[in-house]
Amino acid sequence: MKNGPYLTTGQFAKLIGIKKDTLFYYDKVGIFSPEIVETNGYRYYSPFQVEVFNVITTLKELDMPLKEIKDYLDKRSPEALLDLLNHKKEELDHKIKKLQQRQDQVLKKTGDTQEALRVPAGEIILEERETSYLIQTPLKPLHNEKDIVDSMFFHYQQLEQLEVPSSRSPGWMIEKKQTYTEETLMNSSSSLFTRIADPDKANAQLDAGIYLTTYQVQDDYMLEAYNQMMDYAAKHHLSLASYFYEDVLLDGLSVSGIEKYLIKLSIKVENSTKR
Questions:
Q1: CA–CA separation, 80 vs 72, rounded Å?
Q2: Distance CA 185, CA 148 (A)
Q3: CATH code matching the domain that covers 7-75, chosen among 3.40.50.720, 3.40.50.170, 1.10.1660.10, 3.30.1330.60
Q4: Which superfamily is assigned to 106-270 in CATH?
Q5: H or E element: which one contains 214?
Q6: Using N-to-C axis directions, what is the helix angle for 20-28 and 9-16, rounded to 10°?
Q7: Which of 69, 137, 144, 155 is most exposed by smallest CB count within 10 Å?
Q8: pTM
């Protein structure tokens, strides 16, 4: 063995926390080899090779195939390293952005579920809200299920183009009527919407203020809920805005069957005429 602070295969594997078989394989495919191989077959690594191995490990964790790693190592240079690192930084930035979006989805879904568990279903309340921002897309005239599917597909396309992930099913925007029947409720559907945090990507917004609100399970009671809201507004001399908003708080992730979805139904109170 030559003089110097060299390590056996076992010692080097232990130092960097891998199996010896990995070192043998990397040497076989030409990615990472011991600095010294003696005539008797003994193999020795330099402690200074740890940094090189760490770079290889990092590239693997960035989903770079071993063949590409080998190609880089075969023609390595300071300039090639800078190009590689800049490229990988862009990939990391993209992955970090995606992870942040996923975290935002988890937090939003957590908030929706917690809200659903603490609210009294069926009770009508006045709720103060801050300004919220929406991606809003038009609904086709709803003659059949295909019209609904087409409208939702278009909505999701817009979200994808804007790189806006969604943690909930799209909400429905419903035109205000004095009274509702099943037919008028269906024909009053205007748009689909998704609430977002970034105002720069929004194409609509809901102003801060007081909102008349109720929570209903999505079954036959939804029609009743609309009429009860209109009756409540008349009884309490409330002037309402032009549209109701249906937010889905509990969907297929937490309940089985669309008839069990929990809907938050709300409409902005423009002013009160009560004296």
A1: 8
A2: 15
A3: 1.10.1660.10
A4: Regulatory factor, effector binding domain (3.20.80.10)
A5: strand 209-217
A6: 110
A7: 144
A8: 0.70
Tens digits of per-residue pLDDT, 177-191? Answer: 988 888 888 788 889
Angle between helices 9-16 and 49-61 (to 10 degrees): 50
Q: What angle do CA 32, 34, 39 make, to 5 degrees?
A: 135
Q: What distance in Å separates the CA atoms of residue 17 and residue 239, rounded to the nearest whole number?
A: 69
- Contact criterion met (CB below 8 Å) for 175 and 242: yes
- Show the tokens assigned to 89: 């930084």
CB atoms within 10 A of CB 20: 15
Burial of 128-153, coded b for 16+ CB within 10 Å and e otherwise, reads eeeebbbbbbebeeeeeeeeeeebee
Cβ contact 32:52 at 8 Å? yes
Furthest-apart CA atoms within the chain: distance in Å: 102
Token pair belonging to 135: 């991606």
pLDDT tens digit string along 12-39?
999 999 999 999 999 999 899 999 999 8
Say whether 127 sits in a helix, a strand or coil.
Answer: strand
Distance between CA atoms of residues 73 and 204, nearest Å: 52
Helices (H), the chain: 9-16, 20-28, 49-61, 66-74, 78-118, 145-161, 182-187, 221-235
CA distance between the termini of the chain: 99
Nearest to 105 by CA among 156, 162, 166, 155: 166
